[in-house]
Design brief:
single chain, OB fold (Dihydrolipoamide Acetyltransferase, E2P), Dihydrolipoamide Transferase, 3 domains, elongated
Length: 455
């Protein structure tokens, strides 16, 4: 005997509501073991590889690549039990389709599997390995013979033949697959079919004098418009900045700093024995300066607890570093950054950035931040007015460090100059406190030895 168990999308973070299926690591018919990676999903925070809680044969992939589904949705069906270990045995091969105990009881393509209805009082659901897998039998529609009519006398819905990546492309371009003329083998819709349909559905130009051949083409022959589903990081970022912008009253202050001594310090340390294997940047010095200055003005490291009606002063710094990634903007944070010496802080920043670019930031690094830095200088930008991450009282923008004419000791000289911008929550931080904190950070960049006095 064998059963079909369905693995439901688990909550891999804190309060995860949904996730996108990025890529399947298995296919129908594969034999898998417990802990084998079966799928890569993308949450609002990171990419996560999910291991299988079951051992057996993959019976069906219930969700296409590119689809976003709520937590608790069945995503894969696995045939478990004794029969799954030998799916091609003579006894199974000779069984009548649909006969009790035969291959038809649990076999068939993924389309034939119907997820069972949710049960409010069902036993503990299988999520990640170690949670405690639960074995259930998947329900499926009975196979229909060539002359059989669909149940309830309703017409069988048309299902276009297309691979998951092609389905994702069609969804992104807003193309109805049932309206696409297939050109692939066996009536399969190809990427080219979808792109051709998208170009053909481009809006007509008002100016009829423009050649018709340009009506459906944009740059480099691409469709004039592309629709991208709002999901994952982009969706979470939009919700977060909107909530922050309309909840916390933002104030932004600026200061231009002569950072020549900081740049000289960075060059000296890069050549020292302690930093030879570490990529040291001015960003690490700024991070250290913030951790030193915050002790003198702890209000900038507070949070507003609306439910309790309290202001919470946090005497630790979980320093967020905004990172631009292919998936969008993320702000993972370094826990207890204020306890790290400069070298360890530089290592942590480099590791955090690399992990974020790979989309492998663990959910724990995306929560609990107390204040943040956004380094707009890497794009050659002088400064900006950053929006606070929700729950944080302050964020600092670090502008590009470039040589400029500067009055130094009564003479105009070329100096390394940067601009800092501090946005803060005016419910928590008054102008005096924000100004004092910003001035302290600037003082350390102007003379790093100041940190020895305050730190």
């Amino acid at each position: 005997m064998s059963d079909v168990s369905q693995f439901k999308l688990p909550d891999v973070g804190e309060g995860l509501a949904e996730a996108e299926v990025v890529s399947w690591k298995v296919k129908v018919g594969d034999t898998i073991r417990v802990n084998d990676v079966i799928v890569e999903i993308e949450t609002a925070k990171s990419l996560v590889e999910l291991p299988s809680p079951y051992a057996g044969v993959v019976e069906g992939l219930l969700v296409d690549e590119g689809a976003t589904v709520p937590v608790g949705t069945p995503i894969i069906a696995v045939r478990t039990g004794a029969a799954s270990a030998a799916p091609d045995t003579p006894a199974e091969a000779g069984a009548e389709p649909g006969a009790p105990g035969g291959a038809g009881e649990v076999g068939g393509p993924a389309e034939d599997l119907v997820p069972p209805p949710a049960e409010p009082d069902e036993a503990r659901q299988a999520v990640l390995v170690g949670y405690g897998p639960r074995t259930t039998t998947a329900k499926r529609r009975a196979r229909k013979g060539p002359s059989e009519e669909p149940d309830h006398g309703e017409a069988e819905p048309v299902r276009a033949l297309a691979k998951p990546p092609v389905r994702k492309l069609a969804k992104d371009l807003g193309v109805d697959l049932t309206a696409v003329t297939p050109s692939g083998a066996g009536g399969t819709i190809t990427r080219e079919d979808v792109q051709a349909r998208a170009a053909g559905e481009a809006p007509q130009l008002v100016d009829q004098a423009i050649p018709a051949r340009l009506a459906g083409a944009g740059w480099d022959g691409q469709p004039r418009e592309e629709r991208i589903a709002i999901r994952s990081v982009r969706k979470a970022t939009a919700e977060a900045v909107s909530r922050s912008a309309f909840t916390a009253p933002h104030v932004t202050e600026f200061v231009t700093v002569d950072a020549t001594r900081t740049m000289r310090l960075v060059e000296r340390l890069r050549d020292s024995r302690e930093f030879r294997d570490v990529r040291l940047s001015p960003l690490a010095v700024l991070a250290r300066a913030i951790c030193v200055a915050v002790r003198r003005t702890p209000d900038v490291n507070a949070r507003w607890d609306d439910e309790a009606g309290e202001i919470v002063i946090q005497r630790y710094v979980n320093l967020g570093i905004a990172a631009a990634t292919p998936r969008g903007l993320v702000v993972p944070n370094i826990k207890d950054a204020d306890r790290l010496p400069l070298r360890d802080l530089a290592v942590a920043i480099n590791e955090l950035a690399a992990t974020a670019r790979e989309g492998k930031t663990p959910p724990s690094d995306m929560t609990g931040g107390t204040m943040s830095i956004t380094n707009v200088g890497v794009f050659g930008i002088d400064t900006g007015t950053p929006i606070l991450p929700p729950g944080e009282a302050a964020i600092m923008a670090f502008g590009v460090v470039r040589q400029q004419p500067w009055v130094h000791r009564g003479k105009v000289k070329p100096r390394w100059v940067t601009t800092l911008a501090l946005s803060f929550d005016h419910r928590l931080v008054d102008g005096e406190q924000g100004s004092r904190f910003l001035a302290d950070v600037a003082a350390i960049l102007e003379d790093p030895a100041q940190a020895l006095v305050w730190g």
